[in-house]
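Question: Hello, beginner here. Any chance you could explain the protein record under this note? Any guidance would be welcome.
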Amino acid sequence: MAQDTLQAFLDQIVASPSPYMALDKQYVENRIYALIGDGQTQASEGNDPVDLVNALVETAITHAKIKDTPSEREILEAQLMDLMTPLPSALNRGFWDRYQVSPSDATDWFYQLSRANNYIKTRNIARNVVFDADTAAGDLEITINLSKPEKDPKAIAAARNQPKTGYPLDQLCMTNEGYLGRLGYPARSEHRIVRLTLGGETWGFQYSPYAYFAEHAIFLSQEHRPMKVDQHAITNLLEIVHQFPTYFVGSNADLPIVGGSMLSHDHYQGGKHTFPMMKAPLDREFDLGIAGVTAGVVQWPMTDLRLRGTKPEALINAAVKVMDHWIDYSDESVDVRAYTNGTRHHTVTPIAYRDGADFVLDLVLRDNQTSEQYPDGIFHPHQDVQHIKKENIGLIEVMGRAILPARLKTEMAEVTKYLLDQPNQIAPMHQAWADQLKATNQITAENVTPIIHQAIGDVFARVLADAGVFKRDAQGQTALDKFLAQLA
């Protein structure tokens, strides 16, 4: 039975889009033995490739081919999964052949392949806590991110003693495709990238290993360069949704505090998901004076200006007009300042998607100032909500999907005990919040979880409001109208 593990995996390899056929089985079998050691293989818990590979990794540990560490397990797993993955040239050919039938056929095929070879860590992603919350800002999506494995302290310590290679330069570089991995750096043997052309340049398209939503895609520049939100970026975003009309795509802002976690490599994120912000209606329209483009203010806690039209060129002109004005715009009455001491504070988080024949472009205004009162950012989660969320508000959260830290799972378990008057170790930073929940709710074992979920959603709504540059009150909207009047 145990030997069937290897044979079952060989069958999976031959049936997959890998380069190998039935005649290659003996060759591939010996390649696997070279990785896991000769002799008996351990039994698998199932016939899924992940189950089979897990058993082969355990075999390698038994045969002393690798040590039982997270890093060595990950590297061997990726090497084994690489055997059932097409070569980059074959994958690109397969993708673009299917694209000629339909873009969805191509993305469906690439997505399923990335799941099948476990590049997309579906079992890890399934651990995430996900729920919706009906808040004053609308229906928001909340996730507590548990998919990324905890870092091994021993591996961290060992990585410090490794020679610094600087290769790959970062986790978004194309040099990651097929990279073995090392202590402190993820294995990428089974990683594949589709090449495409944007703005006359070569770009890559891949999926995120630890996806935050359906078909979470990453579009990355072949050139390693810092992110920049400008006319070229807007052109690229609209070209991507032209090429992939079922996907949205957006860019993190290109400044610290309001930007994403990887500003050093030019990239965008997209996928097949409709976010709460994309569903939000317009509050009012305004005139940009550009034919073929309608513009409106979205009913959203952050300041989102929605542009719509059938001609990408007109939308690009409209977006540049808004961005150019925002870059230099200040209004001291609402703490909006374009520069302090020569440092730029303004940028946008742009998101593009299709709605029938229309191209839609959401421009979310961002300001990364700090102050003595708000040292983490004036338009950043304020201190009283940082017990739930203190990290940057990036592209995904701007659109209404919270990416909350893993610590909250254990911390909320203690809050639950506290609310039910059970022995607990509630963190001091949650105490005042929990006391308020106790005072305003009749809490039982049956309703405690929905109450906590709703309260987390309400906090996230506040987080978005904190990040909004023109607040959704009379003063803020009057100031926004003043800004918009100058765009006509």
Q: What stands out?
A: The chain is about 40% helix and 15% strand. The first helix runs from residue 3 to 15. The mean pLDDT is 95. The radius of gyration is 25 Å.
